[in-house]
Design brief:
Keywords: Membrane, Transmembrane, Transmembrane helix. This is Sulfate permease. Helix content is 88%, strand content 0%. The N and C termini lie far apart (67 Å). It is flat, with a radius of gyration of 22 Å. With 119 residues, it is mostly helical. The longest helix has 37 residues.
């Protein structure tokens, strides 16, 4: 009975390892080849943090506008594959909004540290 459990555990572990390896490979591929992921990665660097808020201010409304156009086209009988673009535009707007907020937090952290030391 114990041998059967170990055998099942080994099968489950190999499945988990397969899923883990597949997901890390897919993440690496998406990180290196998707242009918005590369831009967001650059915005997280010290040199890109300066540009994160202006890029977010421009990119988020642009992606939301593109998303609304595609959603309107689908609602009016357009092709269903535009729903994929709606999801991609929504996800990209969330990514850029998060990058802008993260840059705002990172830029305000030294100011908060200085004010807490002097106050």
């Amino acid at each position: 009975m114990c041998k059967v459990r170990l055998n099942r555990l080994a099968k489950g572990t190999s499945m988990l390892a397969l899923l883990w390896n597949t997901s890390t490979s897919l993440r690496g591929c998406l990180r290196s080849h998707m242009p918005t992921n590369r831009v967001v990665d650059w915005l997280r660097t010290p040199g890109g943090t300066v540009w994160a808020i202006p890029v977010a201010v421009v990119a988020v409304p642009a992606y939301l506008f593109a998303m609304s156009i595609c959603a309107t086209l689908v609602e009016r009988g357009g092709p269903g594959y535009l729903n994929c673009l709606v999801a991609i535009f929504a996800w990209n707007s969330i990514k850029f909004a998060g990058a802008g907020l993260w840059a705002l937090v990172r830029s305000s952290t030294p100011w908060l540290e200085r004010s807490s030391r002097h106050g």
